[in-house]
Every structure is written in C-alpha cells, then in structure tokens.
Write the structure tokens for this entry.
Amino acid sequence: MAETVFKIEKKKKIENAYLVGIETSSDEALIANEHLDELRELVDTMGLKCIGSEIVKLRQSNAKFYIGSGKVEEIGLKAKEFNAQCIIVDFDLSPSQQRNWEAACKLCVIDRQEVILDIFAARATTREAVIQVALARMEYSLPRLTRAWTHLSRQSGAGGTGGRGEGETQLEADRRIVQNRIAYLKTELKEVTKRRDVQRAKRTKSSVMTGAIAGYTNVGKSSLLNALSGASIFVEDKLFATLDPTTRLINLPPSQSALLTDTVGFIRKLPHNLVEAFKSTLEEVVLSDFIIHVMDVSSRSVDEHYKTTMLLLKELKSLDKPIITVFNKIDKLENVVTKARLRAQYPESIFISVRTGEGLDQLIKKVEEVLLGDSQFCQLAIPPDQYDIVSKIYKHCKVLGTLFENDVMIISARIPSSHKKLFEKYIL
Ligand SMILES: Nc1nc2c(ncn2[C@@H]2O[C@H](COP(=O)(O)OP(=O)(O)OP(=O)(O)O)[C@@H](O)[C@H]2O)c(=O)[nH]1
Ligand SMILES: [Mg+2]
C-alpha cells in the first residue's frame, strides 16, 4: 500500500528537520514563538529531530513561495548546514509553492498540513481511522504528484499498482491510480460509517443522555474519561493519542447516569480534508446532548486553544448545546494570577486536576445540573402492580421525595425533558 511505502521511505531518509515559523503583522512575536513550540511538539510526535529553527517575519505574502525568495534560499542553505534532511514550515503551502520550495532548497519541504496528516497516519489503528486518514492523505497528495519528493508517483512509477495505459504519461497514470484509490476509500468509508450509525442508533434508543469530551489535543480528555468511568483508554503526553471515539457509561450519584464519549483532539489549522474525512467520528460531538470542553490550564496558549475548539464546534454546528468549560491540569499551574484571570474571563468554568482528583466532584455536580437543566418538576403516581418502573425513575430523574397514598407510591421528582414521554402516563 502506498501509505506503508511512504512511511518506510521517509523514516529511512529523514531524521533531522529544520523548522520555520512565521510571524505575521497581526501576530506578536510571543504568539509566533508559541506556534513554533507547538510545531516542535508536532515534529517530535512525528518522530523527527528538530535540529534548528527560525521565525520569518512576513510582511507581504509572495505567490511563488509564500515568503520572500531570498529568504527561502537562505533557509535552504542553513538547513543543509545543520545537516537537516527536510524543512518543515508552520504554514500551508499550495502544491506549486511546495514544488518551488523543494526546487530552490533541494530538500524535502513539508508543510503543517502534511505534518498533521503524517501523525494521524502513524496513529491510526482501527479500520475506520485508517481509511479516514488514508483518504485525507490521498486528497492532499493528488495535486502534488509532480513534486520532486513524492512517495506516490515514485511508488506507482516503480511499477507498483496498475501500469501505465497506452498514450498515458506517467503523471496521468499516477493521477488515475490516486483518483481510483480515493473513490475506493470513499466507498469503504461509507460501509464503516454505516456500522457506526447502527451503534449510535442503539445508544440513542437507550434514552440515556450523552455527552462528548472535546478540546485541544493533549489537554487530558482521555484521562478525564478514564477517571470518570474507570475506562483504560490510551493516554500519552504526545499529540493526537486518540483518533477513535470511545464511549463509556458514567454513574452520577445518587441515581443518574450518562454516556460520555472521548473524541479526537483539535488543533489550530486542522487540515480541512481531515475534518471532512473524520466527519462520522466527529458526529459523536454533533449528536451529543452536552459537551465538556477541556483545556490545559498550564498552557500559555490556553485562550487560543479555547478559540480553536469553539471555532470547530461552530463548524460542527454544536454551539447551541450546553457546554461545560473545564480547565484541567490545575496541579501544574504555578501562577495563581492565571487562575484568577481565567476565572474572571470564563466565569462558569471549573478547575480540575485529573491527576490529583481535585475538582472532579464539582464537575460531576455540574454535569448533573446540565442533565437536569431542562427538567421539570412533576409528581408521579405509581400503582402497586407497576413498582418495577420506580428504579427507572430513580435512574433518570432527580427524586425529591416519596410517600404512599394507600398502595400508590407518589414520587416528587425533576424529570429531564428527554424522559418525560417515558413516564408520561404516571404524571399527575
Ligand atoms: N499534570 C497533569 N497531567 C495530566 C492531567 N491530566 C492528564 N495529564 C497528562 O496529559 C497528557 C495527555 O493526556 P491525554 O488524556 O492523552 O490527553 P488527550 O486530551 O486525550 O490527548 P489527545 O488524545 O492526544 O488529543 C498525558 O501525559 C496525561 O498523563 C492532570 O490533571 N495533570
Ligand atoms: Mg485522547
């Protein structure tokens, strides 16, 4: 498969990367530095060594290279001096810009999108994730087949998959192969998505409320679900540890429960074809009743992370749901001023540490509040031959009191609107 060939080839040849950040006129130097730090983390997650970096000040964007041509040549020389085998830029390059860079520097040039796609490809394990990532990568590669440093054209040119048709140039043949593969992956994805829909339908029927844990990558979303549900989802101090959503039941004392789904992390400038390909995975967020938005309080870019996630939630048309804003990793925060500032800026937020357990009870309380938020106070009359419904009432409603009138049990409770129908015939 082209994917495997790409990975092997890349691992063999490329070890050292020279990074290029960008400072636009609207960004301050501090932000440019934070972005470069994030790129360093991405490159580290990718398994490459960052041997040097610089930030380029962008005054006017240039059609040929995005940044000035003199600067590109300078970067190429510096990267070679550092013995780098590739240059990684923290901005998106159009296919022709990428070709121009590679021609000017005589090195492989990788843009931010490709870095993220590469990490996703290395991390995908389930069939659904593998197909989603492969599709996004193929779409990224299709307009880039004439690139000097391309895995796909070389692979198919080497006589790998499907030969060249009569009168067809190598490029046309490559394009045809990639287009066929994209079509094939799209059909495969449809099949897998159907299965997810079935699982989801089952869950919807169970009438338990569902929540999605969303947020920037590496903030502790999986750790939080593990802590709340006793699950053992893979957790790692690297970006994009989770690609597949996991759903677990959490019990909320005294008698409620909800299904919580851990989702793929977001990042600034998430490649659009990746968002498209992950649509069915991201639908876990779209279809949830509420969202727990987790942030890393110790990150210097916490406000930007907030904006990125909110923007993606907006794109997913999910901003109308109740959102619980949570700042995790409070154990790591030394600066008390930050906490005060965030508290003022996000007044409804909750500060927690999954590591120490601090604030988790407050979060659970908040989830309960949200679940009951759209509830109504009702009195229910349960005749003796139907007492078996009582445990269900306890499970889904907030029971405030019970008493007996003859043999009929009278329950005062707050009933979430999602369950009103279920108990309708008992309502007085
Ligand atoms: N100090 C501290 N570290 C934490 C806390 N919660 C999680 N972590 C660490 O943060 C790192 C990321 O945690 P994950 O749970 O994998 O984060 P995630 O948001 O699921 O990340 P992705 O799936 O990669 O998007 C891990 O090394 C965790 O051990 C916390 O409360 N305090
Ligand atoms: Mg995770």
